[in-house]
Amino acid sequence: MSVAELDISHIRLGERPLIVCDVDDVVLGFIDPFQLFLQSLGHEFLPRSFRLHGNIVSKADGTEIGAQQVSRLIEEFFEAQELWQTPVDRVVETLGRLSQAADILFLTAMPPRFQDHRRRLLDSAGLLFPLLASEQPKGPIVHALHASRSFPIAFIDDMAHNLHSVREHVADCLLIHLMPDSPVHRFAPAAADDITRASDWAHAAELIDAHFRSGTFNRAAPAA
C-alpha cells in the first residue's frame, strides 16, 4: 500500500498547530509489558541490542527463539495489547492540555489489522485523538497530512529513523526524541544532533509550547 492508498479520510485537522505522535513506548508502554507477556509464555527478552529478533530465548534452556516465531509473538502481543499496555506517565493529562491549542494525531507503526485493538485501548485510557496505523515510512505520511497547511507542527517518536524520515519530508517540523530509560533503549541509534531529546512528557510539552509560541516555522511546503 502506498501513501496515496492509505485511508486518511477520517482525519479532520483544524486551523491550528498539529502534533503527530508515535504510540509504542511514547504514549503506551511497550517494552516492559512485552517482556511480561513473554514471561507469561515461558520466554525471556535479553537486552543485547536494539531489536527484538535474536534477543528472545526460552526461560527453560536459553534456546534462542527463531525469527518467524518472534514475529508471531509480536503479532500475538498486538492482538492482546488491551490486556498488557497502559499509558506512560503523565501522557494523558499532558496531551489533554496540549489539545486545547493543537490538533493531535497518533501515528503508530504496526500492521493496520490491529488498528481497532489499539483504538479501543487508547479510547479506554481517555486518549480519544485520531489514529493511523501503518508500517510505511512516517515522513511521507506526515507530509501528506500537513503539506498544504500553514501552521506549526511537532512530531514525537522513540525511533531515530522515524524522526529522520519526517525531517526529510516536512520543513521546520519540531522533532522530539522521546523514549523510556530501559536497558534495550540504551542500545537505540542516536538521533541527529538537531533533534531534541526529551526526558519525559513534561519536557516534551515545554519544547512544543516554545515552538508554537516562536512562530519560526516555514509556511512553504517542502517538495514531496
Short description:
By secondary structure, the protein is of the alpha/beta class. It contains 7 helices and 8 strands, in the order βαββααβαβαβαββα. Strands 5-4-1-6-7-8 form a 6-stranded parallel sheet, sandwiched between helices. A two-stranded antiparallel sheet has the order 2-3.
Would you give an account of this structure?
The protein is α/β, with parallel strands linked by helices and 224 residues long. The protein contains seven helices and eight strands; from the N terminus they run E-H-E-E-H-H-E-H-E-H-E-H-E-E-H. It has a six-stranded parallel beta sheet, sandwiched between helices. The protein has a two-stranded antiparallel ribbon with strand order 2-3. Strand 4 (103-108), helix 4 (115-124) and strand 5 form a beta-alpha-beta unit. The chain is globular and about 60 Å long.
What share of the residues lie within helices? 25-40%
- Globular, elongated, flat, extended or rod-shaped: what is the shape? globular
What is the subunit organization of this protein?
single chain
Would you tell me the overall average pLDDT? 92
Strand order of the largest sheet: 5-4-1-6-7-8
